[in-house]
């Protein structure tokens, strides 16, 4: 796994543009253009993010994201079987992960769908066979503390940094539970 766009340094509170985005801005522009060209109508020019996780053959165990504001878009690619995202849309984000009930989860085929979900709610990837890649578009918790120079460079890379308004809009799309806790759009594997 790797991240392009903005990151928060683990050793301090500094938020900065990744070396990969600085060195290869065209690659970041390509990935952001991919999402922009496929963005669902209700999110066009409204869903903003700071960062993109690029994963290869990663089957994350049950967890809640720690450095993520919440609203995230994910899509998987490749020649693989299984690898669904298992997500608890009614997770209150507080209780022990072990207390989440299997019957309360949704299993989403990310090969044929794009998903808006709250990364701060419990989720994991089903074991898979084959080559599986995924892109996760999200905002780090320090999205509103980006130094001006890094924000300028991020925008030049195509990253649509959040504003207070866009962040509130993205959060409003994810209700507290059930089917309101996620949005799903068909996007076939060739997409």
Pick out its properties.
191 residues, alpha+beta, seven-stranded antiparallel beta sheet, three-stranded antiparallel beta sheet, 4 helices
Question: How does this structure look, described?
Answer:
The protein is α+β, with helices and mostly antiparallel strands. It is built from 4 helices and 12 strands; from the N terminus they run ββααβββββββββααβ. Strand 1 (2-8) and strand 2 form a beta hairpin.
Write the layout of secondary structure elements.
Layout (H helix, E strand, L loop, with lengths): L1 E7 L6 E3 L1 H5 L1 H14 L12 E6 L14 E7 L2 E3 L2 E3 L18 E3 L4 E6 L4 E3 L2 E3 L2 E6 L9 H9 L7 H9 L9 E5 L5
Antiparallel strand pairs: 1-2, 1-3, 3-11, 4-8, 4-11, 5-10, 6-7, 6-9, 8-12
Compact summary:
The protein has 191 residues and is an alpha+beta fold. Helices cover 19% and strands 29% of the residues.
As laid out across the biggest beta sheet, the strand order is 2-1-3-11-4-8-12
Class by alpha and beta content: alpha+beta
Tell me the fraction of residues in β-strands, as a range: 25-35%
* Sequence stretches where pLDDT stays below 50 over 5 or more residues: none
The number of strands is 12
- On the 0 to 100 scale, the average pLDDT is 94
Query: What is the helix/strand order?
Result: EEHHEEEEEEEEEHHE
**Terminal residue distance:** 21 Å
Query: What integer value in Å does the Rg equal?
Result: 16 Å
Number of helices: 4
């Amino acid at each position: 796994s790797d991240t392009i766009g903005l990151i928060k340094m683990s050793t301090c509170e500094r938020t900065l543009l990744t070396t990969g985005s600085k060195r290869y801005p065209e690659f970041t522009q390509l990935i952001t253009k991919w999402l922009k060209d496929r963005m669902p109508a209700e999110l066009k020019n409204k869903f903003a993010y700071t960062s993109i996780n690029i994963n290869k053959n990663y089957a994350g165990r049950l967890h809640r994201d720690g450095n993520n504001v919440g609203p995230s878009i994910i899509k998987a690619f490749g020649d693989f079987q299984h690898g669904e995202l298992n997500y608890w849309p009614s997770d209150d984000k507080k209780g022990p992960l072990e207390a989440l009930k299997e019957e309360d989860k949704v299993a989403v085929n990310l090969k044929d769908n794009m998903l808006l979900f709250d990364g701060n709610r419990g989720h994991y990837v089903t074991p898979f066979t084959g080559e599986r890649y995924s892109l996760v578009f999200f905002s780090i918790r320090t999205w509103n503390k980006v130094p001006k120079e890094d924000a300028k460079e991020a925008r030049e890379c195509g990253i649509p940094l959040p504003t207070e308004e866009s962040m509130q809009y993205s959060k409003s799309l994810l209700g507290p539970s059930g089917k309101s806790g996620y949005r799903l759009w068909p996007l076939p594997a060739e997409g």
